[in-house]
Predict the structure.
Amino acid sequence: MFDQFTPKGRILAAALDCAAAKGWDQVTLLDIAEAAKLPLADLRNEIASKTDILAVLMRAVDDEVLKRTPKRSEGQTSRDALFDIVMTRFDVLGPYKKALKSIHVSGPADLALARPVLASMQWMLEAAGIGTDGASGSLRVTGLAALYASVFRTWLEDDDPGHSRTMAALDRRLRRGESAIRNVEQVTSVVQRLAADGPAFLRSVFRGRPTPPPPPPGQSSEAGLP
């Protein structure tokens, strides 16, 4: 996955090797530079911190997953496509599981990783044909981030070559998340219509009939109402 003919690729590979060899919290930037056979000054030209390395790693994983993602088959649901994409992500990460365990147990993630994590989730959704625009899109992105974090923890402890525990957890969480997001989107749709249409929308809700079309110019919108 890493082009080790480039400094950045060598840094990523070296960082994961160091994390697999000892706790990530004990790994220094000097350790990574030496493992990558780069002067510390050259390392600094490529990355700013260990957190920055993790952000670059996520981007590299995104690229590999998107390369491996096949075109959606006819009739495949978005949820099934997303299931395949997340499992592809775990396949990509598989060779680095020992290093990722070290990183995971080193402590809470730096808040600076929030943006790259959400960007990764956005691209996973887009690859599955699930829109990420607007308020509903933001809900999907944050929902997938929470789902992925939960299933990732299961994957780290899943030693079955077939990843049966991981697949079961992912399928269960996707079904729950799909239902939860649908309910939230319905509420969001009502709020948005209320904000846009105001009293006319409220009348249509309480009377159980569609909102009437706007009146012609010069005629009051209240004309004809009892």
Summary: The mean pLDDT is 84. Residues 74-207 form one domain. The CA atoms of residues 215 and 221 lie 6 Å apart.
